[in-house]
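Teaching soon. Got one?

===
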Amino acid sequence: MSVTAPRGFRAAGVVAGLKPSGTRDVALVVNDGPSRAAAGVFTRNRVKAAPVLWSEQVLKGGRVRAVVLNAGGANACTGARGFQDTHATAEKAAELLEDSAGEIAVCSTGLIGERLPMDLLLPGVDKAAAELSRGDGGLAAADAIRTTDTVAKISFRQGAGGYMIGAMAKGAGMLAPSLATMLCVVTTDADLPAEALDRALRAATGATLDRLDSDGCMSTNDTVLLLASGAAETVPDEEEFTALLTEVCADLTRQLLVDAEGASKAIAIEVVGAASVDDAVTVGRSIARNNLLKCAIHGEDPNWGRVLSAVGTTDAVFEPDHLNVAINGVWVCRNGASGDDRDKVDLRPRDVTITVDLSAGPHSATVWTTDLTADYVHENSAYST
């Protein structure tokens, strides 16, 4: 049921003609309340798409009635007219819902640098509003926001007291920090204020979606929204809610990882023994972005030297002769030198785990990435055509 698993939400996904494929490309998610509390996190890219700039302003009020999402165009780097198009989209949804455009968030995904065909998008919003439902609407909405995604990505969990968290996401390429090029809408029928939602969302995404780093490329459109209807009339413990929300975000992170463009390996980089969590994340990201290592993993070569060279480019606290590295459970590097026989490493499975022990403290973090393949290069060399 995706975003319609929690009570108080309806959704739709329709064909508006924005995608050349003729598949669904406009989605609408509506919060029927009684609460409209909301929170959001956005790309840290300094070049922000018009819908990001708009939605950042909307979220300052801590209330969202509905979210309009489109694939088939990012509406990024489109100037003042692009921002006007986003405003017009919000105004259209507000008119149909008899509400205020100031509580309508907008998300777009697709090719950067081209304006959206508003003569197709606005009728698509009309159509989506007419097809809103709690039944099939959530899955249709998740399907409509796909670009190069091969499958729709959804998740939901039930919390203590019967409240639900539901979510949908898209993302398959340009996967890097600051939310992994994704559009994501998370809904809950729990009753929490905007401030609590914001704390929970930042904690959950910080440990999951923000640590997915497939290709080191940060999107202009990253958006994760959390909407609460309060329809379950349950006020959960904030810590318990955050833990459940983190589970949902972790599930989405995994789905994004295994559907990454052209990837044949899903790689978890576990950094342990760090002096701080920041150090662990910094080391994990450096390894995740090492193209030589990503090529080696694609070729099923346990080249641990490339791991150490990536660690050495960071400012993390460690001593080179205290570093240890395991690949799929085999400690191929011990104390900065050769360890167990690398031939014992089996890299045939899709899932690969690289563990790096910095021997510098009690902290740890995991960053996720993929291998570098010819399919990835091909898909991204022809993206705009």
Notes: The chain has ten helices and 15 strands. The CA atoms of residues 175 and 214 lie 5 Å apart.
